[in-house]
């Protein structure tokens, strides 16, 4: 059975580490698992990632939103859809919900507007399950190893984004599962695996 799981949340919540742990555990159980990250995951998308995250560039909010949507459309077409068609579990380190939180609400571009732009490129490739790694912005920033252009926006912006995820979870309670990211990564992984197993 194919399944598209998105790991979401602000910086510093452990999404990348969790992605690796979940993939290892599910593979040991005999599942075919593919991990992807956003922005990135294809040659074209990795080039866009550099523009989006590098402090070398000044990027307008709508430019940012459209570049995220462009790399996501490429990743969905080139990697995610073929994997799902082959019956794999896809674990995404971020997804379209990052754009809804960061650009739609955080940048004030509008949820509906950002959703519409992304829907056009995704052609129905939407996460089945969103594991929302809930953490306060101050703790998330303190955990960050390497600052990028977006995390450099600082505490006030990330606090808005953290509250944006709470809003999104309220809008889609059947898709979102809140995971307390303030605990150990082992505890977080155990809960995340439980949620994934319930769907497969």
Care to describe what's here?
The chain is an alpha/beta fold. The chain has a single domain (3-197), classed as Rossmann fold. 55% of the residues lie in helices and 14% in strands. It has a 5-stranded parallel β-sheet, sandwiched between helices. It is globular and about 45 Å long.
The 3D shape can be described as globular
Provide the CATH topology: Rossmann fold
Mean pLDDT: 95
> How many strand elements?
5
Report the C-alpha radius of gyration, rounded: 16 Å
Beta content: 5-15%
Number of helices: 8
Derived structural class? alpha/beta
Low-confidence stretches: none
CATH class: Alpha Beta
Q: How many strands, what sense, and barrel or not for the largest sheet?
A: 5 strands, parallel
H/E topology pattern? EHEHHEHHEHHEH
CATH architecture classification? 3-Layer(aba) Sandwich
- The end-to-end span amounts to 7 Å
Please, how many domains? Answer: 1
| Strand ordering within the main sheet | 2-3-1-4-5
Helix content: 55-70%
List its traits.
8 helices; Rossmann fold; about 15% strand; about 200 residues; alpha/beta
Short description:
This protein has 200 residues and is an alpha/beta fold. It has eight helices and five strands, in the order E-H-E-H-H-E-H-H-E-H-H-E-H.
Fold topology:
Blueprint lengths: L2 E6 L6 H14 L4 E5 L5 H11 L7 H25 L3 E5 L2 H11 L4 H12 L6 E6 L2 H7 L11 H17 L4 E5 L4 H13 L3
Parallel strand pairs: 1-3, 1-4, 2-3, 4-5
Helix pairs in contact: 1-8, 2-3, 3-4, 3-5, 4-5, 4-7
């Amino acid at each position: 059975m194919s399944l598209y799981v998105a790991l979401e949340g602000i910086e510093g919540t452990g999404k990348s580490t969790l992605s690796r742990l979940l993939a290892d555990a599910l593979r040991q159980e005999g599942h075919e698992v593919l991990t992807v990250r956003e922005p990135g995951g294809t040659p074209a998308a990795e080039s866009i990632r550099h523009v989006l995250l590098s402090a070398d560039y000044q990027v307008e909010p709508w430019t940012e939103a459209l570049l995220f949507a462009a790399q996501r459309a490429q990743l969905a077409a080139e990697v995610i859809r073929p994997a799902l068609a082959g019956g794999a579990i896809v674990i995404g380190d971020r997804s379209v919900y990052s754009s809804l939180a960061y650009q739609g609400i955080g940048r004030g571009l509008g949820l509906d507007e950002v959703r519409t732009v992304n829907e056009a490129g995704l052609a129905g490739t939407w996460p089945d399950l969103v594991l929302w790694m809930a953490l306060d912005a101050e703790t998330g920033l303190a955990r960050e190893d390497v600052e990028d252009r977006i995390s450099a926006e600082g505490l006030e912006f990330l606090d808005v984004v953290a509250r944006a995820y709470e809003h999104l979870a309220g809008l889609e309670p059947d898709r979102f599962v809140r995971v307390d990211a303030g605990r150990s990564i082992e505890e977080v992984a155990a809960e995340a695996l439980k949620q994934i197993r319930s769907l497969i």
